[in-house]
Design goal:
The protein is α+β, with helices and mostly antiparallel strands. Among the domains are: 70 residues, Dna Ligase, domain 1; 113 residues, ATP-grasp fold, B domain (D-amino Acid Aminotransferase, Chain A, domain 1, 2-Layer Sandwich). It has nine helices and ten strands.
C-alpha cells in the first residue's frame, strides 16, 4: 500500500503488479479493501441458515391457481402471502354496492376503501384511497366516488393504527441472479429515502437481521426520543418466509411488492400487496 494516491503509473508499482503483488493506491482504497476482507471473513463464519418448511398443500393450490389466471388481485395477493405465514391485513374484493356492504359486514369500522382497478400502481396519486370511513353511509359515498372516477373494482380493509414505521418487503427478479429479496424503509417515501437492501434467497430470520442492520436508517427501529422500539424480529421472520416463497415460486412469480408493511412494537403486518406473474 502506498501512503498517497497517484502512484498507479509508477514503474515499481506496475512491475510489482505484473509479478502478482498488487499495490493499493492510497490509504482510503486500502481501508475499503480491508473492510471487504473482514466482511467476507464474517460471511464465511456464518451459521448455516435454518430451512423453513412451507405447507405443501398450499403450495400445490397456489401453483395451480397461478397457472390458470392472468393476475391476482390485491385481496388474493394478500391471502397468498398470509397462507405462508407473512402477516397481512385482511381485505375483501368488491365490484358492486351489494358486495361492498357484504364485505363491510365482516369487518370492523373504521374501514379503508381502495381502488383495485388494474394498472393503477400508485392509488394515492389518483385519489384512490379513502381512509377512516366510520359507517355505511360514508362507505357508500366513498365507493360511488371511486366508481365514477376510476371504476367499480375496489377492496376494503380495517383501518390500521397510525403508530409504527412503514417498511417495504418484496421480491424482484434479476435477469442474471433470479429472484432477489428487497428489504428496507418504505411507505410513500420509498423512492426518496432509497434505503433498501437486496439479498439472495433463501435465508433465515437471523440472516435477515444482519441485512436489516445494514440499513442507513436502522436506528429508527430502536426508537428515538422516547419512541417505542420496533419489533424487528417480526419483520425479519416475514422476510425469511418471503425468501422461501421466492425460491419455491421462482417459475411462477416475477415480483411481489408489500408496501407499506407496518412495523410496530408488537409485530408487523402488510397493508398492501401486489404480485406480478412471470410470462
Amino acid at each position: 500500500m502506498s501512503a498517497r494516491q497517484g502512484t498507479g503509473s509508477d514503474e515499481l508499482v506496475l512491475s510489482a503488479g505484473r509479478e502478482g503483488l498488487p499495490v493499493i493506491d492510497g490509504i482510503s482504497q486500502f481501508l475499503v479493501g480491508a473492510r471487504c476482507m473482514l466482511e467476507h471473513r464474517d460471511f464465511l463464519r456464518r451459521q448455516p441458515c435454518q430451512k423453513l418448511e412451507l405447507n405443501p398443500e398450499r403450495i400445490e393450490y397456489w401453483m395451480e391457481k397461478l397457472s390458470r389466471v392472468d393476475r391476482l388481485n390485491e385481496t388474493e395477493s394478500s391471502r397468498f402471502l398470509a397462507d405462508f405465514g407473512v402477516p397481512m391485513m385482511r381485505s375483501e374484493w368488491v365490484d358492486t354496492e351489494s358486495s361492498l356492504l357484504q364485505a363491510a359486514a365482516k369487518l370492523e369500522y373504521p374501514i379503508v376503501l381502495k381502488t383495485a382497478m388494474p394498472n393503477i400502481e400508485h392509488k394515492s396519486d389518483v385519489g384512490g384511497v379513502k381512509l377512516n370511513l366510520n359507517n355505511k353511509d360514508e362507505l357508500l359515498e366513498a365507493y360511488r366516488d371511486l366508481c365514477k372516477r376510476l371504476g367499480a373494482q375496489a377492496m376494503v380493509t380495517e383501518m390500521q393504527a397510525d403508530s409504527g414505521l412503514e417498511m417495504i418487503l418484496g421480491i424482484a427478479h434479476d435477469e442474471q441472479f433470479g429472484p432477489m429479496i428487497v428489504m428496507g424503509m418504505g411507505g410513500i417515501y420509498t423512492e426518496v429515502l432509497s434505503d433498501a437492501i437486496i439479498a439472495a434467497p433463501p435465508f433465515d430470520s437471523s440472516m435477515a437481521r444482519r441485512y436489516v442492520d445494514q440499513l442507513k436508517m436502522r436506528a429508527l427501529l430502536d426508537g428515538v426520543r422516547g419512541e417505542e422500539t420496533m419489533n424487528v424480529d417480526a419483520y425479519c421472520d416475514a422476510a425469511a418466509r418471503l425468501s422461501s416463497l421466492a425460491v419455491v415460486f421462482a417459475k411462477h412469480i416475477k415480483e411481489i411488492d408489500i408496501n407499506p408493511l407496518k412495523l410496530t412494537a408488537t409485530g408487523c403486518v402488510g397493508l398492501d400487496a401486489l404480485i406480478v406473474k412471470r410470462d
